[in-house]
Amino acid sequence: MKFIKKIFRFIFKIALWFFIISIGLTLIYRFIPVPVTPLMVIRLWEQAWDEKKDVRLYKDWVSIDNISKNMPQAVYAAEDQKFLEHNGFDWKAMEEAWEKNKKGKRIKGASTISQQTAKNVFLWPSRNLIRKGLEAYFTFLIETIWTKERIMEVYLNVIEMGPGIYGIEAASQTFYNRPASKLTRQQAAMIAAVLPNPIRWSPAKPTGYIRGRQSWILRQMNNLAPIGFGS
Predict the structure, then answer these.
(1) 139-163 pLDDT, tens digit each
(2) Nearest-CA neighbor of 137 among 80, 186, 88?
(3) Residues 6+ apart with CB under 8 A from 150
């Protein structure tokens, strides 16, 4: 019995520290830039062990006030058109994705911008149930502690936008040689078009599919009310 009590006490302490650290980090990141993410570390490790790749980490945090309003509008249109309405989870989209997955026997995501932000800031790339459970937990935390504007700001600053490129300022300078504050609608839509797979696709060399996706995003941007973030 003493051994079992010790195990439970140990598990309780681990859980307690996990909650303290996770909530503390979420509170801190409500106000300060996220310095590094697990994905950045993983990509650096992959680059270091691949002789064909250069070790590269290009990121430059900018506030939402220094990001063109076209960029939040583009990812809003492309990734999550219910971003302002939901509490972090688009239950209808998740249900539809689940039904399609059952029929096609292939798991596809229905992640909101909030879920993607939680995953990028706190977690590692994976599809297992533990990771998905943690993603839900951190999504709840940021939706509770951060504002929608802060979630968008963090998302645009940490998301992978190319090999070794993270955040909209780095992407804007790399692909268009201009600051994120000067991105046009067409440029913002092109960057948003490649976000589902920024390692495979690039705004610098768009395929026909990406150009078609850019056109669709531009139409959605025109149809949706302004999200109200950015300069």
Answers:
(1) 999 999 999 999 999 999 999 999 9
(2) 88
(3) 30
Compute CA 104 distance to the chain's CA centroid, rounded to the nearest angstrom: 26
Contacts of 194 by beta carbon, 8 Å cutoff, 6+ apart:
161, 201, 202, 203, 206, 210
Both structure tokens of 39: 């994905």
> Nearest CA to 117 among 157, 71, 84, 90?
157
Token pair belonging to 46: 């992959």
Report the relative pairing of strands 165-166 and 58-59 from DSSP bridges.
parallel
Residue found under tokens 């076209």? 70
Q: Which tokens hold the place of 96?
A: 């539809």
Structure tokens at 98: 């689940």
- Band of pLDDT at residue 25, cut at 50, 70 and 90: very high
Neighbours of 156 (CB within 10 A): 26
pTM metric for this prediction: 0.91
- Rounded CA gap, 26 and 190, in Å? 31
| Cβ contacts of 167 within 8 Å, gap of 6 or more | 59, 60, 61, 62, 156, 157, 158, 159, 161
Residue with tokens 């945090």: 61
Three-class SS state of 207:
coil
The CA–CA distances, whole Å, from 69 to 16, 170, 190, 210 equal 40, 17, 15, 21
